[in-house]
Design goal:
Strand content: 25-35%
Number of helices: 3
Helix content: 40-55%
Number of strands: 5
Shape: elongated
Largest sheet: 5 strands, antiparallel
Length: 148
């Protein structure tokens, strides 16, 4: 029973790490090969999540590539800030009607972001939190195993 729990915790940690590495790779790739165009914010607001007591930033924007219009609501690869204390800051940076630089994948132009920066501090903070939880869970499981 304990071994299954340890494997489950490790699997969740590895999947989270894999997801984060994928996002880092996308960010790096966008800085190397993605193109940019002008766009305009069409929607900016806060969505309330009462059950989680959090606000989520919603930023929608339109842009045009080769005569075709696109719309996206993904403002960043990481979207770490969108569900945090920075939600209001994001909304103030991208008010409705503002012209923005849109970074898009030339192979799949519908895949775009307006912020392709790398939020190292937030990623590090989140990774430390996850690692602390995993270590604490493994420690608790080890104590339970010794008492059994």
């Amino acid at each position: 029973m304990i071994e299954v729990a340890q494997i489950t915790i490790l699997a969740v940690f590895v999947l989270g790490l894999f997801y984060m590495l994928k996002q880092i790779w996308l960010c790096w790739k966008s800085n190397k090969s993605w193109l940019s165009t002008d766009g305009r914010v069409i929607e900016a607001g806060l969505e309330m999540w009462p059950s989680a007591k959090k606000e989520e930033a919603t930023v929608g924007y339109e842009y045009e590539i080769d005569g075709k219009k696109y719309r996206s609501y993904r403002w960043s690869f990481f979207n770490i800030h969108s569900r945090s204390r920075y939600a209001r800051t994001i909304i103030s940076q991208y008010p409705k009607g503002r012209k923005v630089k849109v970074y898009y994948d030339p192979v799949h132009p519908s895949c775009a972001v307006i912020d392709h920066s790398f939020p190292i501090k937030e990623l590090t903070d989140n990774l430390l939190i996850v690692m602390t939880i995993v270590i604490a869970a493994l420690w608790i499981l080890e104590i339970i195993k010794q008492q059994a």
